[in-house]
Amino acid sequence: MTAYLIRRLFAAMMLLLVVSAVTFAIFFLVPRLGGQSIDELAVQYVGKDANPDSVAAVKKNLGLDQPLIVQYYDFIKAIFVGAEYKFGPDASKCDAPCFGYSFRSHIEVWPEITQRIPVTLSLAVGAAVLWVISGVTIGVVSALKRGSFIDRLAMAVALLGVSLPIFFTGLLGLALFTSQWPIWESVDYIPITEDPGEWFWNLIIPWCSLAFLYSALYARLTRAGMLETMGEDYIRTARAKGLRESKVVVKHGLRAALTPIVTIFGMDFGLLVGGAIITEQVFSLQGMGAYAVQAVKDSDLPIVMGVTLVAAFFIVFCNLIVDLLYAAIDPRVRYS
Amino acid sequence: MKTKKVSAVLATALALALTASACGDSDDGDGDNNNKNGKKAAADAALESIVNPSSKKGGTVTFEHSDVPDSLDPGNNYYGWVQNFSRLYGRSLVSFKPAAGAEGLELVPDLAESLGQPSADAKTWTYKLRKGVKFEDGTEVTSKDVKYAVERSNFAPEALSNGPTYFKAYLEGGDKYKGPYKDKNPEGIASIQTPDDHTIVFKLAKPFADFDYLATFNQTMPVPRAKDKGAAYVQNIVSSGPYKFESYNEGRSAVLVRNDQWDKSTDPIRPALPDRIEIKFKVNPTTVDQHLLNDRITVDAAGTGVQSKNQPKVLKASEKDQTDNPYAGALSYLAISTKVAPFDNIECRKAVQYAVDKASVQQALGGDTKGDVASTMLPPSVNGYAKFDMYATDGNKGDEAKAKEHLAACKQPNGFTTNLSARADRPDEIAMATAIKASLEKVGIKAEIKQFPSGKYFTNFAGNPSYVHEHKLGLMMTAWGADWPTGFGFLDQIVNGAAIKPSGGNNIQELDDPKVNQGLSDGIGMTDAAERTKKWGEVDKLVMETASAVPLIYRKNLLYRPDSAANVTVTQAYLGMYDYLLISTNKN
Amino acid sequence: MTAPIETTAASAEAQPEAVLAGAGRSQIEGRSLGQIAWTRFKRDKAAMAGGVVVVCLVLMAALSKPIQAIFDLDPNKLNQDLVDPALQAPKGAWGGMSWDHPLGVDPGFGRDLLARVIEGSWVSLLVAVGATLVSVLIGVILGVMAGYYGGWVDSVVSRLMDTFLAFPLLLFAISLSASVQDGFWGLTGLPLRIAVLIFVIGFFAWPYIGRIVRAQTMSLREREFVEASRSLGARGPFIIFRELMPNLVAPILVYATLLIPTNILFEAALSFLGVGIAPPQASWGGMLTDAADRYESDLQYMFVPGLAIFITVLAFNLLGDGLRDALDPRSK
């Protein structure tokens, strides 16, 4: 188990390194391939008064004059040991984990990210609770009542759900419930620490929009999984032993059917926490995703790096948790 | 005094312009939300008067903004609203008079005792500081603090790159000085002299009669050298005004409370009525509008008006009386590159002047609440505006026949293909470009719309001549608002040949016309204010003769004032937003 | 399917794998796979309906230019007289619907929405199909190599796939689309945007298909007919192309059909976020962005692009589900 964990953690670290390297490459190599010079890259951060002097100063300050590999190394190093930056009379210290400073505003990136994590997390957790409960329930009921009206209806709705993009359902929800029938004034993120009621109230539309999409998927998956397991021999054995049907369904059927769903949930949830980009955009919520989109448009590399790494971290982390959870759900799984 | 005259001329010009823009539907219905005077203000009332006047002290004025400031550091910002807002916690040498209508463009001494004393050649400007003005920590403000503030804001782009650099451009030796962070010599730049603690002298490289306007920039708000941390100063700004920072949360919010070291007797212009000022950033734009409408906040800090999608909501009869629709001091225009074929031929540029259907552009933008059709570079709210229309067409709808005549004269009778650039993240600009593309097509000019991120628009694309030449950006959408509201302040950066820069410039049409250049330098050397003002109108005509820019829309904002907002008036000095020095609240 | 649409990493994952067993089994029965599948497929009304809609959509997209010419539908013609500028809404009820403009007009310029939907369809389908081909190509090549050769090839490809699956894809896609500037490799304007989108979307989706192909190849490799071929002296490439490929067609087809709707959503999402197809070129995602700013005054607008996306995605999903069921007797 310990060896397994260590191996997994090592793999996760490698993965994060790759992710950061790819992000780096997207920012520096792709423009280079398109024929942009470093000066052209640097000049956008100078602002109003670009002259050779100020371009050179900016290049030096942002480290753009260094070879790519050195820049990358410095970035990674800063995450672990912090770094010093000079945007004024004295150098300022950026403590680990230091994701550097915004190329444009010179603001430290890490505190900005941590400020936004609660927004995205609130969004993801609330929606996840909703979609897991509703998706799995619908899936189980559909599977048990296979072919019935309920099953057909549920599957039809689920098909709608997977075919409707969040940027349409979310928008529609927003238009209907903040404008047409203004039950909500608008949707805004209120920190849970500030006012839990408002926090909850404000996030209802985003949660429902997100959950609609996912519960449709989960209902389909659960139904398929249930149908498969309920046809297995051991279910027949369990029934033959005279177990109550509810016990058969929950303890034997659902448990096995849930295993693949947990994997998928781990991936989905990890992705979502890493930035519910579209949802945040639709509802103008200032989470990590929205932060990253703006940074991409501003070519603000340190911010994009920071958010991408945090996002990748959540994906990796959730996958790891899921793999560990397997043992609890599926007794056949052993770690070696 | 010369500068006084400027203001007088300006005031008359403005009074006319503002009256024109304020459409006069003023029925004084006795609504249910009567204010103190028992009368409800009408639409556009804040253009010429102070709406809801009050002398009640106390309460909290709340601002919300859908974005973040470029920086609240007075030495590191360019946004008009920050210039306006920063006057709450900083005192510049000179300021605009917090007053209604045209009076709001008058210059008044703030930290200085009087307006600048120019030498006869307008190259040396002397200011005497008021005595007894203190920082929030109780130390007295000296001329050295002002000098230091100018140095750090203009000469240290490695740390503070957001602000304009006019001081650098005009001060003697400004091109040599490396700024206080690199040049450790405590004497600083030689052309700003501080003979004593209350005198500051600026020595300029060339005559500059608008210097008092530069002195209104928050870059002259004093900064104590010992407290300066460069880019991090914004975290601990030292106040010299009536309010100081109680808290500052980068990118989130700031709270200002009364500064007990501020002395009303040294400050004739600030009423400082509210006890507390709160500002929140990154609020969902719809929420900001909603909060205004139901009176939860006092002001939308951006000052650019309600969102387009909420425009119908506030234009309803029940809300309309609480709106103001002032000029935003800005012009949207189509820059025509003078260096990209076939626009290097003036006839082809004239063809575009006639081809563009400005009425369609205006409609695409959202009709007349978004702005009036423009025919000059100077907007009506800028000192020096003279009304004329060199390329008049019927109903501003464009004139295909005339456009084709000029195309023929340009030896392109069948039209040609070109590129039209716009900023991808500005839907307004894309909308106007779309309308322009359609009207150009009617005369055979096929323009492909190219979109670029606004963060790099001037540095890497439209404002970068080598890119423009290489990629044949013949037509470029852009907008401009003056850094200070005079003809020179408006025109110099966008039409002066000297403003063509290898990158990041605003003269993107690369106009280098000897007559225009001469007109500008003649004008700014003129010590007679009336003559100077007249000169700007002439320069405007010279620019239009080059046909290098198609003025499209004098932009207007649709502002909304909540019931509880008191002392509300529009200031043209800050791009037609409300005056943040005056505003207070009726709420407790 | 591809993760990024805030849909899901693995929504399709469990399903296409189910195809495999079925495809193989029908082979053993020695009957024509196509015949069996077609009989099954014909019985599935939903799938047939989806198929018909897909055919219509493809025709509409392919013939969009002639259609626009014949019916005088110009997606870029402004009809500003049909729009109230202050209200930012079309004049008249139902988003300005009329005989001339059956789906109404857009609130900004009065452009005909039917014309714009048709214009958007070819962009959308071209990108989605192009991207699908890219992922199928990469996925099949790498998947077959990993599955057939095993050993270090398999380890490398599998690692690569795991890595890709852990990427924050949408973030990468946004960064990549934004960092490609006009004039990249000689392409400009719309062709460049389309090429970038095809590459970005396709490039990140290949591991999903790669995994399926790898697993399938691995099991096929051990079959008797492959053994037989090998013992007769056939080399790797021959076996791959003559023996394995025919057996991989069915799962690839199903998977590709199910990947197209995801890619349509992906394209629309990128355009919605402002890094995809740029206006004034009509695109479904772009129209939704536009509608997002106008719902206060013109609620109807969002339904036009929204339903266009919905119908297309639904049709492809039905077709894909139907194909899977038809090719996999077990799932019925």
What is the name of the CATH class of the largest domain in chain B? Alpha Beta
Q: Identify the most extensive interface between protein chains.
A: A-C, 65 and 56 residues
Indicate the CATH topology of the largest domain in chain B.
Dipeptide-binding Protein, domain 3
At the fourth CATH level, what is the homologous superfamily of chain C?
Answer: MetI-like
Computed CA radius of gyration of chain B, to the nearest angstrom: 24 Å
Helix content of chain B: 25-40%
Give the overall shape of chain B, derived from the CA principal axes: globular
Largest sheet of chain B: 6 strands, mixed
Quaternary structure type: heterotrimer
Integer tally of domains of chain B: 2
Distance between the termini of chain C: 22 Å
First CA to last CA of chain B: what distance? 43 Å
What is Rg of chain C? Answer: 23 Å
User: How many domains make up the 3D coordinates of chain C?
Assistant: 1
Number of strands of chain C: 2
Structural class of chain C, by secondary structure, is: mainly alpha
Fourth-level CATH superfamily of the largest domain in chain B: Dipeptide-binding Protein, Domain 3
Strand order of the largest sheet of chain C: 1-2
Subcellular location (chain C): Cell membrane
Transmembrane segments (chain C): 46-64, 122-148, 160-178, 190-209, 252-279, 299-320
Organism (chain C): Streptomyces polyasparticus
Membrane topology (chain C): Multi-pass membrane protein
Sum this structure up briefly.
The complex is a heterotrimer of chains A (336), B (588) and C (332). Chain B is α+β, with helices and mostly antiparallel strands and 588 residues long.
